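> example.struct
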C-alpha cells in the first residue's frame, strides 16, 4: 500500500517521511487513524497488479493503474515456440545416450525412459500447436501458464 501527500510525494507503509517540516516515524501510516491521514491530506493509492512484461509494454500511471499494450503476437509466438522446443531438446538430451546405445548396440531403452520421452515430445507438440492456434495475447498467456511437462522419468 502506498500513499500520496498533497505535494505529490509518494510514501509507503512503514516508511518514515517528512512533510511540511514535520518528521513522521516509519510506523505512522500503519498506526494513524483515517481521520489523521485525512487531516494530513494523504490519498491512498490502490496498487493494481502489474501486467506481465513478457507479454505487454507496460507503463504505470500516477494513480497506480497501468497502461498495457500487447506486444506483437507473431514475435511472442516465435519466442515461446522456440522456448518450449529448447526445453524439450534440453530435457530429451539427458537421455539421448540411451537412444544412441539402442541404435549402436541394440541395448533396450528402459520403459520408463521411453514413456517419459514420449510425454515430453507430446507436451512440446501440444504447446507448439496451441501457440500456433492462439488468436491473441490473452490466449497465449493461458497456454504459457498451463504447461504440463511430465515429471522426470529417467532410470
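> example.seq
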Amino acid at each position: 500500500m502506498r500513499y500520496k501527500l498533497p505535494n505529490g510525494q509518494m510514501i509507503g507503509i512503514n516508511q518514515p517521511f517528512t512533510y511540511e517540516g514535520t518528521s513522521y516515524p516509519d510506523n505512522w501510516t500503519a498506526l494513524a487513524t483515517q481521520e489523521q491521514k485525512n487531516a494530513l491530506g494523504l490519498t491512498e493509492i490502490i496498487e493494481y497488479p502489474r501486467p506481465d512484461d513478457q507479454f505487454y509494454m507496460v507503463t504505470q500511471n500516477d494513480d497506480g493503474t497501468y497502461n498495457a499494450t500487447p506486444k506483437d503476437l507473431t514475435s511472442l509466438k516465435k519466442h515461446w515456440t522456440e522456448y518450449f522446443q529448447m526445453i524439450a531438446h534440453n530435457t530429451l538430451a539427458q537421455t539421448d545416450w540411451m537412444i544412441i546405445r539402442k541404435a549402436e548396440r541394440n541395448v533396450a531403452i528402459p520403459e520408463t525412459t521411453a514413456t517419459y520421452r514420449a510425454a515430453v515430445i507430446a507436451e512440446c507438440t501440444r504447446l507448439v500447436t496451441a501457440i500456433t492456434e492462439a488468436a491473441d495475447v490473452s490466449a497465449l498467456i493461458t497456454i504459457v501458464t498451463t504447461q504440463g511437462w511430465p515429471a522426470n522419468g529417467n532410470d
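> remarks
The first helix runs from residue 28 to 31.
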